[in-house]
Amino acid sequence: MNEYRILVVDDEEDLCEILKFNLENEGYEVDTANSAEEALKMDISAYNLLLLDVMMGEISGFKMASMLKKEKKTAKVPIIFITAKDTENDTVTGFNLGADDYISKPFSLREVAARVKAVLRRTQQAETERAPEQIVYKSLVLDIIKKRVSIDGEEAPLTKKEFEILLLLLQNKGRVFSREDILSRIWSDEVYVLDRTIDVNITRLRKKIGIYGKCIVTRLGYGYCFEAE
Fold first, then answer.
1. Which residue ranges does the record assign to the Response regulatory domain (predicted)?
2. Phi, psi angle pair for 48, to nearest 5°
């Protein structure tokens, strides 16, 4: 399943429901709004992508996009315009407003799915390229480039697997990862690894990071997470 959230904004309720149904079948989490006014009451920054109709009521898709791009919190949310207008001027206007793609009605649902996937892939790559070189939590510093963890300036001698587990948990503070999640991400190339291997590595990791060991919390029946104090 994908972990992306998409907001579809279109004044055609039937079209919203069709797009919602099909995109959810692709594994996305999808919400809908039938006007820009309704959408602007929502937390736009929580979405990974907007599918935005151009021709709506008092606030058009172009106007809504312009409003979003002026706000720091929503400026980087990707936008795909969906519209019956397909003139060159409208397309240029859309891209000048920072649109990531432009789909003209009528369209095939396969085309929409393909374009959504392409935009999300591009934006994910861009986010990865802007990823920080270090993750800092209080006096705990994880250097992604140098593959080094230090506490109060003193290096903690982590193994490769311990480092990768800590990186995964720190990058996703508060999120619980099951043993299966950790195995698939950290031991992806290994043929057979026991669940017990995860527990052993977590135990060693907790000891090596001292006072921050208690931040690696066990959620019985679910898995592990890094919980900020």
1. 5-120
2. -90, -15
